[in-house]
Amino acid sequence: MEWNWQVVHDVLPQMLQGLVITIEATFIGALLAYVLGLALAILRMSKSRVISLSIYWTSEFIRRTPLLVQLYFLFYVLPDLGVFLSPLAAGILGLGLHFSTYTSEVFRAGIENVPQGQWEASKSLNYSRYQTMRYVILPQAIPPMIPPLANYLITMFKETPLLSAITVVELFNAANIYSNSHYKYLEPMTLVGVFFLIVSVPSAYFAMWLEKKYQRRSSRMP
């Protein structure tokens, strides 16, 4: 088995297109995960026990079941119920829903970490709960959340090969289609690993830098 640069030349354009789809699915899915995660965190902290427990068990169900099964449900089962999604839409929705249950815990921990005095001060100023959350609590809670949220973004990026199971032609599937068509696996699969390293390693160092930055900032706070 020898390395063939002609194979690299032939497969590279398809893989670059797949990389674009991978990054697109990651960032849109992450945005969805952050928005839903914040909503789940706020609902989880509701004073209504019914709402709080409902959100808790729903999140637990999503978190404890495999992402691959959820992707299959969204793409193959929902059409039987009259809901049709494109492969990419189903993949993005699956990533967003699955990881929102993890980001919600990050948001909830960050919100609960804000000193109780901040809530009491907002109440004394006659702020509504919405005003308190938007103008007082979240501006203090979100900065320390950025490092773990960035780590989940990297994790989502590494989970995108699962989208190939629902026919999304992302980075891995682009290489796999070429490999199965030409019976050449060394170069395409090696390139998949290289592309993932090129994106994920700098991202991981960036996440570490963010973590150290906010640790220093929090240590300077009285």
TrEMBL record:
GO BP: amino acid transport
Topology of this chain in the membrane: Multi-pass membrane protein
Segments forming domain ABC transmembrane type-1: 19-207
Highest taxon of the lineage: Bacteria
Span of the signal peptide: none
Coiled-coil regions, chain positions: none
Protein name: Ectoine/hydroxyectoine ABC transporter permease subunit EhuD
Gene name, Swiss-Prot/TrEMBL: ehuD
